[in-house]
Structures are given as structure tokens and as C-alpha cells.
Amino acid sequence: MRKKINKILGKAEIVLGRKKLLALPRYVQLEPTSRCNQECIMCPRNEADYDSDFGDMSYENYLRVLDEIPTIENMQINGLGEPLLHPRIFDMIKEAKRRGITLSMNSNVIWVDTPKKAQKLVESGLDILKVSMDTTDSKVYDEIRQSDTYDKAVAAVKLIVQARGCKHEPQIWFNSVILQQNYKDIGNILKLGSELGVDLVRFKPVDTFDIYKDKGIKVASQEDLFYEMKKVLSEFRDVKVKHNLGDLINNFSNYSRPEGDYPCFSPWLEVYIQYYGGVRLCCEFYSKKYDVGNIFRENFKDIWNGEKMQKIRHDFWKGKLGFPVCATCNRFGRNMEIYKKVKKFKF
Ligand SMILES: C[S@@+](CC[C@H](N)C(=O)[O-])C[C@H]1O[C@@H](n2cnc3c(N)ncnc32)[C@H](O)[C@@H]1O
Ligand code: SF4
Ligand code: SF4
After folding, report:
1. DSSP calls for 280-325
2. What distance in Å separates the CA atoms of residue 296 and residue 317, rounded to the nearest whole number?
């Protein structure tokens, strides 16, 4: 009931453009740990000037987050780290489910090396498991993830699919980041997903944030990428697995933030919480310099309605960029959907 009221209130406060909110976040991304067993070339945690330490959120602090934000409808339970390395990840999932939260998790699944572990993961209560699978070539996997574990990742997916059997939960997706290093492999990734029996292959163009301008990870010729995707779409017309290639092609020009003063509604809807309690606007914020507060040191409501957040809402409502990462935001699609609805009432 509380969540339903919060949802209605939140929608009204967006339409009204309120800066101080009665509603609390509906969506949370939470980082159980920032420790990892891989060192991917596109991941900000591996940059020389990455400014966070590596560590775990304690279970007690995790409960504190859930207590302070009782309105969470949907939680993504990973940050910049491998969530399955957290010693209490399954307790965390169980507790969130007990509180009626829909849960998804990105993982490289290297931790899953026995049928027993696969069973544990499948029975955890997780709604969606998004497995990172960026290639079907073990050398490219090693190049991207700096980890000679392609075979382990494939074996883990097989164990997980087997453990799920004919049940429908969790949904098992591939989350495949498109990079210069792997874009010619898109078709094979689709084929692999289909053969392994995953439910969806979700391709995502690499996010270059505001730091990867010259790193050589974004596909150098976007035209080549476009034609590669079109080719794969027609060659793999009959592939059994669902995928988002059609959507990506149709929205090819929307990979980045659209031109114009469009508002970002993220500060009305969500927060990204670091293992040490740092609260950030969304998962694009990879640096602690953008923390708007610390949920383990301050009352969450004071952060959510503090001066910083009110100023951010004020600026975002006017369509101001706000932060360097906002200029390269590739998760702006949801904002455009909300904008179309809000526009009917205001603007
Ligand atoms: C940061 S990881 C954390 C979870 C886990 N360690 C994993 O790799 O799945 C979450 C997802 O973000 C993806 N990712 C990492 N860097 C990215 C980038 N620059 N752009 C887009 N996705 C990225 C990863 O491939 C992974 O699928
Ligand atoms: S993408 Fe995931 S596995 Fe790779 S370094 Fe980042 S957190 Fe670790
Ligand atoms: S514009 Fe994008 S990066 Fe910036 S807060 Fe909004 S969703 Fe996050």
C-alpha cells in the first residue's frame, strides 16, 4: 500500500516539478561490493584515477538502506563490482524479496562453478539474472575482461540454465556490451544465447561516460556498426532467442542524450547507493565526488530533500546538463517517455 501511494505521489510531484518531495525513490541500484574478479577494459573501476576503495556493504548497513527507503519497487543489486563475491548476497536477495522488491542483478557468473552454486542462485528469489557475455571468442573475452575465463562463463550459464529447468524464474539474460573489440561477433552472441537457452540477449552500446573519448573501445565507425546490426538482424531472422537488435537499429541515433533542453527525471525516481553508503543520482556516476550524501551517516530523507538534491531538481527540470556524465547519458530514453506524458500537463 505504501509503495502504491508513493508511486502516485511521485508521479504527481514530477508533473508539478516539485523540488522538495514527499515521495521517496521507487528505484534503487545498490552496490553490495566493489570487489571484483575481472578487470574489464570498459569498466570505470579499473581506471587509474578511480577514486573509491574496494569493499563490501555490511548486512546491517544493507538492512538500514531497506529500512530508510521502504518505497523501493525495483532494485538492481550490483554496482562496480561482482555481486556474487559478497558473502551474504543470498541473504540480501532474500530480504529484499521478503519486502516485495523486484530484483535484478548483473553478474559475470564466474563464481558459479558447481551445480550446487547454480541451484543456490536459481533458488535465491532473483527475478532477472543478467549475465555479462560480450563475445563468443575466448581471446576477445580475455582482451575485454582481462580474464582467461570464457569457458568458465559458458559452463556457468549451462549450469544455471540446467538448475532452472522448466521453471520461469529467474529470467536469464545476456547483457552484451558492444565495443570496437566485439561488434563483429554480435551474430555469434545471439547464436550462443539461443543455444544455451537464455531468455533474452540485450545488446548495449558501450557507455563512454565523460572519460573514454580516446580509449578505442567505442566502435570507430558507427556506420559499420549500423550495417553489422542490420546484417545480423536479417541473417538471424529465425533465431529462437529474443533480443533487442531491432530496437537498437530503430533508435540508432538515440544512443546518446538528445539535443535540446529535455529534463532528466532521475532525481525524482531513483538513487544509486555505494557499498560505503555514498548516494549518487544514477549508475552513470562512477566517482565519489558526485556523492550527494552518505546514507550510513545521514538520514536518507535529509539527503533526498537536502539543498544539493533540490538544486539538482531545479536545474534538471530546466533541462540543464548538470554534470559531465549527463552529456553522454545513454539511458535517456526513459526520460523522453516521461517527458511526453508530463508535457501534456505542463511546459
Ligand atoms: C559494472 S558490471 C557489474 C556486474 C558484474 N561485475 C558484471 O560484469 O556483470 C554491470 C554491467 O555493466 C557493463 N559495463 C561495464 N562497463 C560498461 C560501459 N562502459 N558501458 C556499458 N556497460 C558497461 C558490464 O559488462 C556488465 O554487464
Ligand atoms: S564490468 Fe563487472 S566484471 Fe568487469 S570489471 Fe566491472 S564490475 Fe568487474
Ligand atoms: S541525465 Fe543521465 S546520467 Fe544524468 S542523472 Fe539523468 S539519467 Fe543519470
Report:
1. ESSTT--SGGG--EETTTS-HHHHHTSHHHHHHHHHHHTT---SHH
2. 28
- Span 211-243, pLDDT tens digits: 887 789 999 999 999 999 999 999 999 999 999
Q: Which atom of ligand 1 is nearest to the CA of 207?
A: 20
CA nearest ligand 1 atom 13, residue? 177
Q: Name the residue with the closest Cα to ligand 3, atom 8.
A: 282
- What are the grid coordinates assigned to 206, written together? 558501450
**Strand 128-132 to 171-178 pairing:** parallel
Q: What is the mean pLDDT of residues 306-334?
A: 92
Helix, strand, coil content of the chain in percent (nearest 5): 40, 15, 45
Residues 19-33 have pLDDT tens digits of 999 999 999 999 999
Residue 78 Cβ < 6 Å to ligand 2: no
Q: How far is CA 154 from the centre of its chain?
A: 21
| pLDDT at residue 127 in the model | 98
The mean pLDDT of 93-99, rounded to a whole number, is: 98
Q: What is the pLDDT of residue 251?
A: 81
Nearest ligand to the C-alpha atom of residue 206: 1
CB of 79 within 6 A of ligand 2: the answer is: no
Where does residue 39 rank: exposed (0-12), middle (13-18), buried (19+ CB within 10 A)? exposed
C-alpha cell at position 41: 577494459
- Report the amino acid identity of residue 71: T
The ligand whose atoms approach the alpha carbon of 309 most closely is 3
Model confidence at 347, pLDDT cuts 50, 70, 90, reads low
Kindly tell me if the per-residue pLDDT of 328 is higher than 60.
yes
Residue nearest to atom 3 of ligand 3 (CA): 326
Rounded to the nearest whole angstrom, what is the distance from the C-alpha of residue 229 to the centroid of ligand 1? 21
